[in-house]
Design goal:
It is built from 9 helices and 12 strands. By secondary structure, the protein is α+β, with helices and mostly antiparallel strands.
């Protein structure tokens, strides 16, 4: 184990919280059983094929319920919702809105795994508060090594919503759905905690840091290990991070990410999002 990587158990809990506070992130190993992660990954791949078959277009970023597997009363997100091609090609063309607005109707396999294996409890302990997750901010991703490199640049989460530091009081939980960082892209995290929001690249809809800000960072100061299925990474909202991609990587990376906010200090922008909220 390194100074950023821990096993999640009661003896390590205070160390984990201190590291999260000091460094801005922690890498937790073997949190979710590998067979459960494999089940989630398999469900995601199946659901990607279903929605791509319906829409006849690639889908790389989907609502987190697209990692939900078959169970009683639920076949898959597309069938359960009654989704039609018109959700994507007609009207407001925001096919994700039904899923965003109805989290309480869905199995929520990823969230359930985080709750069952101590991550939600840890996040609550960090905030010393109940936590809220806003469903439209939670995603599951199938990242291609051929993705536009501009969108793989380092960034801080939710800067396309707001640059006000008061709104950046949340934790992101990132879950790789298979081993990654060697032959498929990983996650790199800057090993310094920041208390401000960096200038963003407006040409990329404020999703990534500006080139000037990126060039000011020390490339040797990124944490970019290999991750295993079952690992979980937690980081503060203003932590600088991005996709770790090298020329020898040849496979897609699948992962899920969620955002948790303290209930007593929920940003107005999150309150105003037209989606469902889950509270723990």
């Amino acid at each position: 184990m390194n100074s950023y990587k821990f096993e999640l158990n009661p003896l390590n809990k205070s160390k984990i919280l201190k590291s999260l506070l000091k460094n801005g992130f922690v890498h937790l190993s073997n949190v979710i059983p590998k067979d459960k992660v494999k089940q989630i990954d398999t469900s995601f791949l199946k659901n990607v094929k279903i929605v791509e078959g319906l829409l006849e277009t690639p889908m790389n970023i989907l609502p987190i319920c697209f990692a939900d597997g078959k169970q009683e009363g639920f076949e898959d997100p597309v069938s359960y919702s009654g989704m039609k091609r018109s959700w994507y090609y007609e009207g407001d063309r925001q096919f994700k809105s039904w899923f965003w607005k109805n989290p309480e109707k869905l199995p929520n396999d990823v969230i359930s795994a985080l709750e069952r294996h101590g991550i939600v409890s840890l996040v609550k302990d960090y905030f010393n508060d109940s936590v809220v997750t806003s469903y439209s901010l939670n995603t599951v991703r199938n990242l291609s090594v051929k993705s536009n490199p501009d969108y793989l640049k380092v960034h801080q989460d939710m800067t396309h919503f707001t640059s006000d530091p008061k709104d950046h009081k949340f934790l992101t939980v990132w879950i790789p759905l298979h081993d990654c960082g060697d032959d498929s892209p990983g996650l790199k995290i800057y090993k310094k905690r920041f208390e401000s929001v960096f200038e963003t690249n407006r040409e990329l809809a404020n999703r990534c840091m500006s080139d000037e800000e990126i060039e000011s960072l020390d490339n040797e100061n990124f944490y970019c290990p290999n991750y295993e299925a079952g690992d979980v990474v937690i980081f503060l909202s203003m932590v600088v991070h991005g996709t770790h991609l090298t020329s020898n990587m040849k496979y897609n990376r699948r992962s899920a990410d969620m955002r948790f906010f303290p209930k007593s200090n929920l940003p107005k922008l999150v309150e105003n999002l037209d989606d469902g909220k889950l509270t723990y």
